[in-house]
């Protein structure tokens, strides 16, 4: 008789317990992988290398990946994913690997739950396999509504400067499964985790992560359409701190992150480490008279502090926006938890450059700055971006993902010289401006032609921008309504600015 429910999952765990080498008896395991994006393909590739019997189920299958699956001997079923494909039922998977984008109540996940099929994300699979190739790396985990990628890159740069073999990976674009299979091995992985990935992680048992250190940068309403509520979103984020061994790093300016740390089940000896833009107390990183200081990772932290760098030096490196300085402090805490010296952190920061579309200065003409922060894909990120400037013509809009923009508009109404609304979710923004910023000139781009959106937005912004203003693309919304991604949106803005200014 087939096992069901907890008995089936328990049987799978017992079998996996005996898989002690990289390639042993996985050939007896039937696995289905949902999705063929970057993480889905990495999961299929990994499982094929292990010798498992793998079936990929996906709505879209790029030709290149389809060809590679054929080479790997992995079966592929293309489906609209509105129902359970016959091929999936016939495969009778014992394990389902789910790509991050699959909604928790997706029909295929409900089908798996009803049959007691174990469901893992790619992060859990990678953790379970981490010690199967050479010496396992330590993991530093990073999550938050905003700033994750910059902080991961900063921390990895600091660790590399200290001589560690380090891989930034996870939601940053390089799958963790690819990182752990690197034949050269790593000392440490800095793993960016989205709320989707965290949702699927257990907090106890064989699949639970036990990171060296962990960090939640901030928490603001986002992806509510996916998680179902703000409470569920925050609960997913809080998973990052579970079982941490050395440092649980939280944001002093965001009480939710401290609350998460206070309620986390961690390893004995793990410490709570705060960071913020004010004067630091013991076990904190902060700023004293323009000097970034560490009062956490030194024995006499009650009596003195260590200098990391200065705000002036960060300004010279293009890292002076307040929210970027907060990311620098958070990354420094991660690096310090791993033993990186303050001087090494300072040297690493002097060579660091932000990625494109993150507070990127596109042009300066007639004392008007044009700045691309297309990466500000939610109100929390746009709030930080707007706060960095005194007088703004704001280009805003896209897919709002169910979040409320009223507080954002109200908070920054006084600094707005004008606003240009783009995207499909224009009505909530139009109403928010009418309610909270009635004196601000607001333009609306209603073109359905993607190629015309940014040129029109730039022309409109130029009609109200005056010397001393910043024309700021900080959409507070996702881009997929009119662009492939935030980078494509930012590139379109860059091109439109240069064309308009005659460059």
From TrEMBL:
Pathway: Cell wall biogenesis; peptidoglycan biosynthesis. Residues 357-476 form the Mur ligase C-terminal domain. Its EC number is 6.3.2.9. Pfam families: Mur_ligase_C, Mur_ligase_M, MurD-like_N. One of its GO terms (biological process) is cell wall organization. It is an enzyme of class 6 (ligase). ATP binds at residues 144-150. Residues 142-276 form the Mur ligase central domain. Keywords: ATP-binding, Cell cycle, Cell division, Cell shape, Cell wall biogenesis/degradation, Cytoplasm, Ligase, Nucleotide-binding, Peptidoglycan synthesis. The keyword NAD does not apply. GO terms for molecular function: ATP binding; UDP-N-acetylmuramoylalanine-D-glutamate ligase activity. It catalyses: UDP-N-acetyl-alpha-D-muramoyl-L-alanine + D-glutamate + ATP = UDP-N-acetyl-alpha-D-muramoyl-L-alanyl-D-glutamate + ADP + phosphate + H(+). InterPro entries: Mur-like_cat_sf, Mur_ligase_C, Mur_ligase_C_dom_sf, Mur_ligase_cen, MurD. GO terms for cellular component: cytoplasm. It is found in: Cytoplasm. NCBIfam families: murD (TIGR01087). HAMAP family: MurD. Belongs to the MurCDEF family. Cell wall formation. Catalyzes the addition of glutamate to the nucleotide precursor UDP-N-acetylmuramoyl-L-alanine (UMA). PANTHER family: UDP-N-ACETYLMURAMOYLALANINE--D-GLUTAMATE LIGASE. This is UDP-N-acetylmuramoylalanine--D-glutamate ligase. It comes from Cryobacterium roopkundense.
């Amino acid at each position: 008789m087939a096992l069901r429910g907890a008995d089936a999952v328990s049987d799978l765990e017992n079998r996996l317990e005996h898989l002690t080498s990289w390639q042993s008896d996985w050939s007896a395991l039937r696995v289905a992988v949902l999705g063929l994006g970057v993480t889905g393909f990495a999961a299929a590739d990994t499982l094929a290398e292990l010798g498992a019997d793998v079936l990929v189920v996906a709505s879209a299958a790029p030709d290149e990946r389809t060809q590679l699956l054929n080479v790997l001997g992995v079966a592929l079923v293309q489906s609209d994913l509105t129902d359970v494909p016959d091929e999936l039922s016939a495969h009778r998977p014992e394990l389902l690997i789910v790509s991050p984008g699959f909604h928790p109540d997706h029909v295929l996940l409900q089908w798996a739950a009803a049959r007691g099929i174990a469901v893992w994300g790619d992060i859990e699979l990678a953790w379970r396999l981490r010690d199967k190739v050479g010496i396992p790396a330590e993991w530093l985990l990073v999550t938050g509504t905003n700033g994750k990628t910059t902080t991961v890159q900063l921390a990895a740069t600091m660790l590399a400067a200290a001589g560690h073999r380090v891989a930034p990976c996870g939601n940053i674009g390089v799958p963790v499964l690819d990182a752990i299979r690197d034949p050269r091995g790593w000392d440490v992985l800095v793993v960016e985790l989205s709320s989707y990935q965290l949702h699927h992680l257990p907090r106890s048992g064989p699949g639970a992560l036990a990171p060296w250190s962990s960090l939640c940068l901030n928490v603001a309403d986002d992806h509510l359409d996916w998680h179902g509520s703000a409470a569920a979103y925050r609960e997913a984020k809080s998973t990052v701190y579970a079982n941490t061994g050395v440092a649980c790093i939280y944001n002093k300016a965001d009480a939710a992150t401290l609350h998460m740390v206070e309620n986390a089940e961690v390893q004995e000896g793990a410490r709570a480490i705060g960071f913020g833009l004010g004067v630091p107390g013991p076990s904190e990183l902060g700023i004293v008279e323009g000097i970034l200081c560490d009062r956490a990772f030194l024995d006499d932290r009650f009596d003195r502090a260590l200098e990391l760098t200065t705000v002036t030096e960060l300004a010279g490196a293009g890292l002076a926006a307040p929210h970027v300085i907060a990311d620098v402090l958070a990354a420094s805490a991660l690096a310090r938890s791993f033993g990186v010296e303050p001087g090494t952190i300072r040297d690493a920061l002097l060579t660091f450059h932000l990625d494109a579309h993150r507070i990127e200065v596109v042009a300066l003409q007639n004392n008007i700055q044009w700045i691309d922060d297309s990466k500000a894909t939610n109100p929390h990120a746009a709030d930080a971006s707007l706060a960095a400037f005194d007088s703004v013509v704001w280009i805003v809009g896209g897919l709002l993902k169910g979040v409320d923009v009223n507080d954002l508009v109200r908070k920054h109404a006084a600094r707005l010289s004008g606003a240009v609304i783009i995207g499909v979710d224009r009505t909530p923004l139009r109403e928010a401006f009418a309610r909270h910023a009635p004196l601000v000139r607001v333009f609306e781009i209603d073109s359905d032609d993607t190629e015309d959106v940014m040129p029109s937005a730039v022309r409109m912004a130029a009609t109200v921008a005056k010397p001393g203003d910043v024309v700021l693309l900080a959409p507070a919304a996702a881009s997929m309504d009119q662009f492939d991604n935030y980078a494509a949106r930012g590139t379109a803005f860059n091109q439109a600015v240069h064309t308009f200014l005659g460059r």
